[in-house]
Design brief:
By secondary structure, the protein is an alpha+beta fold. It folds into 3 domains: about 130 residues, no CATH class; about 170 residues, Gcn5-related N-acetyltransferase (GNAT) (Aminopeptidase, 3-Layer(aba) Sandwich), CATH 3.40.630; about 70 residues, no CATH class. It has a 9-stranded mixed beta sheet, sandwiched between helices. A 5-stranded antiparallel beta sheet has the order 13-17-16-15-14, covered by helices on one side. A 3-stranded antiparallel beta sheet has the order 3-2-5, with no helix packed on it. Strand 2 and strand 3 form a beta hairpin. The protein starts with a helix and ends with a strand. Keywords: Transferase. GO terms for molecular function: transferase activity.
């Protein structure tokens, strides 16, 4: 779709323009949060005689419908809007505190589960949560982004996604450090020791924080790591006085659990009133978009009435052998390794699951690498993990 729009129109993505490039001044006089009425952006010196002189129509994609805007392109333009993808958010300003949000969003069982997972995570690993906002060393930034790429590649492989990583990731890496230092973005990281195990990239417009993308090490999934990291960011957003936490596009079960408001994204076609060619070209692009999203919504509705369970195509099997502690010895062929040196993500996950079920601190375990297996020694037993 983006490639076609680039050919037929002057295509601009709202989030890239406003959040990544910080070029709202290119199009807008002001931008406002319709929930609170507060301005998130206002041009200091509007153009005296603004005029959209482009012959090709302009297409603005990914415009949230709860964002009110005034374009600085003059009055001789026509704006046509089409609803596109669903989005979701949390109205942070509707709650007095993070604690009130938790109570109104989750029942006692859900809140207890989060607390249990957080406590177990702290018991089993050396956990530290860091939000980079206002300052970040370049060396640490590179470490975090390298870890992000590695974890996302693993997640994509597990889900059978052909692309190794998000195609926008290189642009995020290029622009985010400066945005973090200017408090126009924040990076949330959960560390196990010095190793990042959950990361989210969040971009800021006024008092609105946008959860652009996130990933976590699936070895720790038993601990609801993705949810714990998200709750940390939501609490931080309350503490910093943000009004909205926007989950943006995409329909995922976790968004339905955490969000309290849904909204549609819009695509806006903008073209000049004057000139037959301009009007015909612009209206044709608008009608094409309208037809495309009519088909999209009809297909989405049909799929929702006949849901299919997703499959994890990269599921692997492990053979686990238990050996009494007294009967275990280490041979010269076995090499002592750190948990992070274990190459198999399935063995890593099995070890983390063991820590979860036995409340066993990772530091109390010893790992040995053999030619075809990993030996794990705890205080009470020895386990041999081997991929089939």
């Amino acid at each position: 779709m983006s490639r076609i729009l680039n050919i037929l129109s002057n295509h601009i993505d709202f989030h890239e323009l406003v959040l990544l490039e910080k070029r709202a001044d290119k199009l807008y006089r002001w931008i406002r949060n319709s929930f609170t009425g507060n301005l998130t952006y206002q041009k200091k010196l509007p153009q005296e005689n603004p005029n959209y002189g482009g012959q090709r129509p302009m297409v603005l994609t990914s415009v949230p419908n709860y964002i009110d805007t005034e374009l600085d392109l003059g009055t001789d333009i026509i704006i046509k809007k089409v609803r596109t993808f669903p989005g979701s958010l949390i109205k942070l300003s509707a709650y007095k505190s993070y604690e009130e949000y938790l109570k109104k969003t989750f029942d006692q069982k859900g809140r207890s589960h989060f607390a249990k997972c957080q406590n177990l995570l702290n018991e089993c690993f050396t956990i530290r949560h860091q939000i980079y906002y206002g300052s970040m060393e370049k060396e640490q930034y590179q470490i975090v982004f390298n870890a992000f790429e590695q974890m996302q590649a693993r997640r994509f492989k597990q889900k059978g996604i052909q692309s190794a990583t998000d195609p926008m990731l290189s642009e995020y890496r290029e622009k985010t450090l400066e945005l973090v230092r200017n408090k126009q973005a924040c990076i949330s990281v959960i560390y196990n020791g010095d190793t990042p195990i959950a990361i989210s990239l969040n971009y800021i417009l006024g008092k609105i924080i946008h959860g652009f993308t996130k990933t976590f090490d699936s070895a720790y999934s038993k601990f609801s790591l993705g949810h714990i990291e998200l709750l940390n960011v939501i609490k931080w957003s309350f503490d910093e006085g943000f009004e909205v936490f926007d989950f943006m596009k995409g329909e995922y079960s976790y968004k339905n659990r955490f969000a309290d408001t849904s909204y549609p994204f819009l695509v806006e076609t903008i073209y000049h009133k004057k000139g037959s060619l301009n009007r015909i070209w612009g209206h044709s692009v608008f009608l094409g978009l309208k037809l495309f999203y009519f088909i999209y919504h009809a297909t989405r509705l049909a799929k929702s009435s006949n849901p299919k369970r997703s499959r994890n195509i990269s599921r692997n099997l492990l053979k686990v052998q238990k050996i009494p502690v007294d009967g275990s010895t280490t041979s010269v062929e076995e090499k002592r390794v750190h948990f992070n040196e274990i190459q198999s993500q399935y063995i890593q996950k099995a070890i983390c699951d063991y820590c979860y079920h036995n409340r066993e601190p990772m530091d109390s375990l010893k790992f040995y690498l053999n030619e075809d297996h990993i030996k794990m020694i705890s205080k009470k037993e020895v386990l041999i993990f081997k991929e089939l």
